[in-house]
Specification:
By secondary structure, the chain is mainly alpha-helical. The protein contains four helices and no strands.
């Protein structure tokens, strides 16, 4: 179950990063509230995953899912640039996530 909690926690990290962007500096109440709910839920699930996963593994995968996920949402939803250097960087993060999972 720890890996399921960790995956959902990572996806919720993407959600809170997106709603934080949409909150326009916490000036939009609904997006601000969603940011808080998603962030707290993400932290809670991360904590649950850490009951049985090592700190380094759990935290690295959680932040990696969040970073790559937010990168993808930025490109697909917000129209951010998908330059070659940015794609390579995201690919390296993804490779790190896969390597960490395989090494556990």
């Amino acid at each position: 179950m720890a890996w399921v909690y960790l995956t959902i926690a990572g996806l919720l990290e993407v959600a809170w990063a997106f709603t934080m962007k949409q909150s326009d500096g916490f000036t939009r109440p609904l997006d601000t509230a969603l940011t808080a709910v998603f962030a707290l839920s993400s932290f809670a699930l991360l904590a649950m995953a850490m009951r049985s996963l090592p700190l380094g593994t759990a935290y690295m995968i959680w932040t990696g899912i969040g970073a790559v996920g937010a990168f993808i949402v930025g490109i697909v939803v917000l129209g951010e640039a998908a330059t070659l250097p940015r794609l390579i960087a995201a690919g390296l993060i993804l490779a790190g996530i896969v390597t960490m999972k395989l090494s556990h």
